[in-house]
Amino acid sequence: MFSFFKKKTATPDAAPAAPATPAEQPAPRDAAAAPLAIEEPAAKQSWISRLKAGLSKTSANLSVLFVGAKIDDDLYEELEAALLMSDAGIDATQYLLDALKKRVKEDKLLDAAAVKAALKTLLIELLTPLQRPFELGRHQPMVMMISGVNGAGKTTTIGKLAKHMQANGQSVLLAAGDTFRAAAREQLMVWGQRNNVTVISQESGDPAAVSFDAVQSAKARGINVVMIDTAGRLPTQLHLMEELKKVKRVIGKGLEGAPHETLLVIDGNTGQNALTQVKAFDDALQLTGLVITKLDGTAKGGVLAAIARVRPVPVYFIGIGEKIEDLQPFNAVDFVDALLG
Description:
Blueprint: E1 6-7, H1 41-54, H2 56-63, H3 73-85, H4 89-106, H5 112-127, E2 135-136, E3 142-147, H6 154-167, E4 172-177, H7 184-195, E5 198-200, H8 207-221, E6 225-230, H9 238-254, E7 261-267, H10 272-285, E8 289-293, H11 303-310, E9 315-319, E10 327-329, H12 332-340
Parallel strand pairs: 1-2, 3-6, 3-7, 4-5, 4-6, 7-8, 8-9
Antiparallel strand pairs: 9-10
Helix pairs in contact: 1-12, 3-4, 4-5, 4-11, 5-12, 6-7, 8-9, 10-11
């Protein structure tokens, strides 16, 4: 089992958990201080293999450039084209090319394998600041507001995160605040049933009111984590983005300092549009983290480099498929190894 989260020792003044029904039973008070599970080598190797398969398209396009190549302008031009095709964007591509040329000159690199190794190092250096552990136990309850455009895999991601949190000794409550999309409430209810987690919802409720009720319910029941599903918005729908801001304000009225995490789920296949989404949602909500989904075959992966250069919001998790174990913490070294082979 992967060490999915970092845990912080519970504060001494944490409120005791109130009695709850079996489906809502909170974790013991010392759950946040429990030791993390140790990664199993076989499980990690399986994950890395699947990640490599998911990024194989970009990996093939980049790796082939260094096979018997001469270190000349033609190589740099081909590398520029490959990076742009991988969705790295103009800014990150130019940064990587300039840094690579400088390193080749300073280190007097003469063969293609050494240049490829230098590029891997530069990519790791670029992406490492995005790598940050998701820390549990900082607040009681910890409130998470989760956004994303329709189709990004937001509700499915919430279900997976809830399962992983339960495996780390956390009690979870979900809020069906996505009243904008048809069947979103029902989809979240299904995940709640799978994980034996309570879902706060209203048939035609105001998303801000649903979110407020969920926070109050979690406080009363001693729940560790509240995950609020908010409606998928396109950055161009400004009136809908304003509603998301309202939801965030109302959550803060329900619990001072909340939401403690404001996450955006983005589809790894959407290329530079993903960067546009990060900018828009960050401007509106001040994002604390990202979840990149669907890195499973057609995704190019380079958009993480673009995010790192233009809007370096931490990437907490990446996903490569539909299974629970297909969502794992972002690791820059593993990602670059999969991207460059």
